[in-house]
Amino acid sequence: MRRLINRKPDGVARLALMLLPFLLVLLAYMAASEARLAVNPNDKLLPGWASISAAVERMAFLPDSRTGNYLMLNDTLASLTRLGMGVVIATAIGGVFGILQGLIPYFRATFNSFTNVLSMIPPLSVLPILFIMFGLGEPAKVLLIVVGITPFIIRDLALRTSEIPHEEIIKAQTLGASTWQIILRVVVPQMLPRLIDAVRLSLGAAWLFLIAAEAIASNAGLGYRIFLMRRYLAMDVILPYVAWITLLAFALDLALRLVQRAAFRWMYRGNGN
């Protein structure tokens, strides 16, 4: 039936439609920037492409005159190190607690309400406590990411674990499998790709907590640089940094998707992907 809900774009149309919103935003920015610069050539709110290109060259490709470091590279490495440590720790804790909480009734009875309460605490409200307890160094920033995304990973994985057909658990028991054998050989193989999905969904929040922590107390990092440049209204630096963070987040998400697709091909069988 020739209704809109039944019509699907082909490959070229899909690519064009995907690029359309980005192109519209770009054109809107260019028009607004030209309009403001026509009124005030020194306007800093919407800098022109020449200013942005010069800022990117200065931050990414020229060593800093004071430290000799490439600032954007230095900031990127600092932020990715913190983000990586926080996400890895949260994934390990979330994976273990999520599976046990979803599978073992006694564990669920003990920790389910506790996890639900933890997930309701706004993580940014904990940041001052972390700074008081751990100082202004790296542990507080990493722990904020852990505190922020671990409850979500636990709850999501516990829900996924509880959705495993009960017949599979019964069948494993009738074959003589112990609890740990069921966990390791039945549950974990099914939950690993779901764990990757949970990590992907929590990456946006992890970046948010990282930028917030770096903005408050840091001397390197993407969030630190953005909030430092804010003092000087240096939008020609801030905008490329925001775009770079977005690109990094997209690349991380894509990398996790590729790992999931390569390691767990059975998930994609029969769904046309």
Mean pLDDT: 90
Q: Gap between N and C termini, in Å?
A: 24 Å
Identify the overall geometry: globular
Unreliable spans: none
Helical coverage, percent range = over 70%
Number of strands: 0
Radius of gyration: 24 Å
Proportion of residues in extended strands:
under 5%
Order of helices and strands: HHHHHHHHHH
Q: Characterize the biggest β-sheet.
A: none
Judged by helices, strands and strand pairing, the structural class is: mainly alpha
Task: Note the total helix count.
Answer: 10
Descriptive notes:
By secondary structure, this protein is mainly alpha-helical. It is built from ten helices and no strands. The chain has helices at residues 11-39, 49-61, 71-103, 105-120, 123-134, 138-162, 166-174, 179-216, 222-230, 235-263. The two termini are 24 Å apart. The relative contact order is 0.11.
Can you tag this structure with a few keywords?
single chain, 273 residues, mainly alpha, 10 helices, 0% strand
